[in-house]
Amino acid sequence: MSAKILTAEQRAAVEAEGETLVSASAGSGKTFVMIEKIISLILEGKAQISGVLAVTFTNLAAAEMKEKLKRAIVGRINEETDEGVKSRLKYELSEIGASDICTLHSFCANLIRRYFYVTDENGDFQIADDADASEMKNRAAEIATDALLEQKSEKFQLLLRLYAGSKGLKRLTELFLPLYEKMRVHADYRARLENMPARFTEETFHSIADTLFSGLKVRLTQLRARVQSLAEETEYFVSGNEMSPKYLSFLAEIQALCLQLERAEDLYAAAALAKESKLSSKPPNGPLKKAENAPALRLDAHIDGAKNAFKEILIELKGYENEGEDLARYLRSGEIAAALCELLLAFDDAYAAVKKRAGKLDFSDLEHRTLALLSHEMVEKELKSRYTHVFVDEYQDVNPCQESILRALQGENMFMVGDVKQSIYGFRGCSARFFGEKFERLSACGKALVLNGNFRSAPRVLDAVNLIFSEVMTKRTGAVDYKNTSVMTASDRFPKNSGEVWLDFIPEEEEKTPEERDVYSVIGHLNGGEEKTDAEGAYIASVIAAELHKKHFDADSGEFVQNDYKDIVVLSRSKTGRAAKIIAELVRRGIPVASAAEYNICEYPEIKRLIEILRYLDCAEQDIPLAAALKSALGKLTDEELADIRLAAGSQKSFVVACREYAEAAQNRTGEKLRAFYAQTQRLRLLANVRSAAELLAGILSESGEEIEQLRAENGEERVKRIDRFLSECGALSVSDVLRRLKNNRYQVGFSETGGENAVRVMTMHASKGLEFPVVIVAGMDNRFDDRDFKEKILTDEEWGFAPLSYNEQNFTAYDTILRALFRERMTARRAEDEMRLLYVAATRAQYCMHFIFREEGEFDFARVGRASKFSDFIPFEKFRDRFLQLESADFGATGERPLLISFTDEAAEREISLRYRAPYPYASSLEIPVKSSASAILKRQGERFYAEKELFPEDTGGSKTDKETGIAYHAFLERADFFAPPEREAERIFALFEKTRPELAAKLNRQKMARILAFPLFGNLRGFTLYREQEFLLSLPANALFATDSEDEVLVQGAIDLLAVRGDEALIIDYKYSTHSDERLVRDYARQLEIYAAAVGKIAKIEKISAHIVNLDRLSCVHVPLH
CA geometry: angle at 158 spanning 157 and 161, to 5°? Predict the structure, then answer.
């Protein structure tokens, strides 16, 4: 067997024969066991790779299984001494590449192609991707609805009246397409649709009412038992005079009312009793608070929970007022369901026809076609002779149709592994029911095995997971008896009693007194002062800060290792909403984050200012946009100067008027700034007529040095990334169009952090499945689950199908139905089950340390587990009281400048304070040097002719926009050119490429001119060189090497070299220009820029022999540029 020693559980699974189902807990090595079993069968001569079918549910999982099997067989070959066995293993190794170790859908597609002659499918069909399927569905919807309109179907007319509305057929299509997808997971979906209308009868109405009442009676019985337990606990406190005897009376009253409702004849009799039931008020807990009696207060909270549970039942019962009306509404909803069934069947026919014409199948088709093939006697016989053994990975994730396929494939030897506790894809139609039913059936004959040995997590982590799920996961609540079948045991990979688990509680936020509006209250808005700190995100930052000072045990190396950012993951229920706020808070504190989730950059001060600048350019008569623009790099006014303007005008005038008057009258520095600001913004408004918003903002940021200032500020790189993202969002839109888009999108511009390799991961719990991390932080433990599905116009259920609302067309009123009430009960239980499993997945990702983040301690009640509305409902807090934690706020260290003075002062006082507390800086000349620059900016600073970065067409040549676009086209051509191909042929190739992909560039190019450029000897001499196109660089050079200064401070210089050719210790720099100037003029104007490029190449590539050339794409010349 394997060099890795098998545990007793693993060995039992490997040696099992016949139909076997293995329930493998998280981290138990289920894939390893599958591979060991395959190798064991090969070594024993019981199977060959070609006779094995192993299916899983993702391409990645299938590829990993193949790779692991290859490595395992190679390992056995190296260990084996018997040449015969060795030869057989080598043969099996060569078969793995072509083996049927694949996804279920790949197996289905191959089967349909192999037996195309049995079906009416062409063997060369394509599998439709999401875009194809969406397009074909929309076409099919048009065909189906047109046909029903032409038939003048009364049922379809009903749907149009109820659902079409102002959006017409589009709205109806949006409604029924999701229904269609949910129905198609069933093997017999057409039969279900055909038979569903007949189910809406008076008999089924009464059956539904009985089912609802049975569920209510179970809840009432559980509540009585809970109240009895609370009464026994209360007696202790009453006997000690710590609680009022009125508590016992109150609890007895709840019990009596519960019993009365339980004994009602039926649902509607109970509803009549509920209408008359009145519960007294719970005794006040003021005395308990005054006495600071914590145990009694906790008991009072539990009693409060029991009261609320009873009131919830009363509210539900009061919804069943009139049996006759409810029956009529139920039957009416059946008519609507029948109309929907007719539409779905018509759509199914149309969709099948559209796909057939296109020669495509979607993924559901693959399943249904395969199931049909497996019912063919010849196909079934051939498959059972072909495959001696069938393996199924992640069996808990099958949907009803897939389960039917697996049942049809089942021979004597089917080995299934999975973990019903990790069945978290119910929203895709997957059902854990099949796993549970099969496990129970096979348990009776000893063919249901378990793998509970965990190799992933430290003992204390496992103890916590076992404690939680032994309390809440039962056959009724989670389809598995965790306490008796699934308690995980720790391996010897970790030290005994190692690991940490904490229940963290976010400190209560102090109530802040609203600030009074001061002289001009816009400053807080401009500086992001209105941006609220997210309490959970801030607390998670504190947890991360604390964990960075700790170590975790690395089981692979057997040593304790210092925690780093990459060792930490934050798990959230979804990637929007709360996750986005957490990410934003971590980024704001300088924590590197990697996540697919997006956060809104419009909440950040640097983006707020850009938006306000655009708003001011669009309309100059608004106070806040004006103030924002004045505070930005456009105006460069200080808070004090804004206050002076406001005070000078008095409180009656708007700030816009105040600024205008101040600019006209004031002869001081502030007035000069205002006048310069108005002149500049007037020019920008003119430019806005011909330039996009992104171009305007990029110019403002570049010319004012604002981008450099943002880079220097706290979290500067993140600020600049957000600015770049905002400019990208603006695209080629005008100022007014950008503002309109922002408004329509509610000022939401998403941005996801890449963070690099050493970053905290923020991901959804679903995405974390299969992964593991040293430190896991589970966020949002007391956030309420999403209940949008409960409010849909049409509810769905695996057994019944769907339940629409009932409508009264006379008074335009929609009514709920008793069937929808039953659906919601089932949805509530199913949601609690699904979310419990999702929490299990999250909790079992932790290797060494785990934090659960709460806002407050919840009340645990097992009776509510099946109706849980948040993760905290699953946590038995009392059993973790020694694991409670509340950290202090962490400071990651702000690096930005902070104002010395906050209040307004006179200038003399400010100068005096500055002299006393600020030492003079001995290197004043360095203050004038930018921390970051570019080659073109350096030329501008030195008074030389300035050309924009990457500008092919110099501005002073009088060239038109068309000339510039031509220069860009030729630059793009050279980016793609093969300099060593025949010039004419290469010119033709690129021209043809651009005609197809970039016609706007092709229109600017001349093929003869392109060929002449490629024929330059300079390009022909590049053979043997390694070429780097658009080679960007960022390096540090002394200031006195770049500017006229005595400062030796380092300056970051960035740039991009059009073409860099390197061979050994030799480098050629080639710069493209599109200019009417002479070669001598270009050398004079650009020599300094190329010298900076040469310095970059020399310093970064350690090359001394460097030459530079300018290629003029307009005049078709090439000139050598001397370097000094």
Answer: 85
- Under a CB-based contact definition with an 8 Å cutoff, are residues 1107 and 1123 in contact? yes
For residue range 488-523, list pLDDT tens digits in order.
999 999 999 999 999 999 998 765 554 444 444 444
Tell me which residue of 613, 587, 590, 612 sits closest to 600, measured CA to CA: 587
pLDDT at 1053 over 80: no
What are φ and ψ of residue 782, in 5° steps? -115, 25
How many angstroms separate the Cα of 200 from the Cα of each of 197, 215, 577, 874? 6, 21, 40, 37
Give how far Cα 318 sits from Cα of 476, 867, 984, Å: 27, 19, 85
Cα separation, 937 vs 701, whole angstroms: 13
Flag whether pLDDT at 23 surpasses 70.
yes
Residue 927, pLDDT score: 40
Using CA atoms, how far apart are residues 1006 and 1004, in angstroms rounded to an integer?
7
Q: How many CB atoms lie within 10 A of CB 803?
A: 27
**Residue 524: its pLDDT value, please?**
47
Band of residue 719 on the pLDDT scale cut at 50, 70, 90 = confident
Give the C-alpha separation, 424 to 431, whole Å. Answer: 9
Among candidate residues 33, 23, 28, 24, the one with its CA nearest the CA of residue 1: 33
pLDDT at position 513, please? 53
CB atoms within 10 A of CB 998: 15
Q: Residue 1034's CB: how many other CB atoms inside 10 A?
A: 12
- Measured in degrees and rounded to the nearest 5, phi and psi for residue 564 equal -130, 175
pLDDT beyond 80 at 778 = yes
Structure tokens at 115: 């037996």
More confident residue, 248 or 989: 248
pLDDT higher than 70, residue 925? no
Cβ 134 vs Cβ 141: under 8 Å: no
Q: What are phi and psi of 488, to 5 degrees?
A: -80, 145
Instruction: Express each pLDDT in 240-268 by its tens digit.
Output: 999 999 999 999 999 999 999 999 999 99
Environment class of residue 388 by beta-carbon count within 10 Å: exposed (0-12), middle (13-18) or buried (19+)? middle
DSSP string, 932-977: EEEHHHHHHHTTSPP--TT-SS-GGG---HHHHHHHHHHHHHHHH-
DSSP summary character for residue 240: T
d(CA 97, CA 74): 14
Q: Give me 142's structure tokens.
A: 């048009």
Q: SS3 for 406?
A: helix
- Stated as kind and residue range, the H or E segment containing 552 is strand 551-554
Q: Please, what is the angle between helix 605-618 and helix 623-631, to 10°?
A: 120
> How far is Cα 1115 from Cα 504, in angstroms, rounded to an integer?
70
Residue found by looking up tokens 């509510």 in the block: 864
Tally the C-alpha atoms within 13 A of residue 400's C-alpha that lie toward its C-beta. 12
pLDDT of residue 900: 26
Q: How far apart are CA 833 and CA 829, in angstroms?
A: 6
**Which SS3 state, helix, strand or coil, does residue 598 take?**
strand
Distance CA 92, CA 98 (A): 11
Residue 1037 has pLDDT above 70, yes or no: no
Closest CA to 725 of 556, 809, 577, 604: 604
Bridge partners, residue 1028, by sequence: 1060
Q: Are strands 568-572 and 760-764 parallel, antiparallel or unpaired?
A: parallel
**pLDDT computed for residue 45 by the predictor:** 85
Q: Give burial (CB, 10 Å; 0-12/13-18/19+) of 507.
A: middle
Q: Tokens at residue 1112, please?
A: 């003029």
For 143-170, what is each residue's pLDDT tens digit? 999 999 999 999 999 999 999 876 678 8
Confirm if 298 and 242 have CB atoms less than 8 A apart.
no
Q: What is the largest CA-CA distance in the chain?
A: 105
Indicate the SS3 state at residue 1096: helix
For residue 1038, the cross-strand partners are 1050
Give which of 736, 660, 746 is closest to 696, Cα–Cα.
Answer: 736
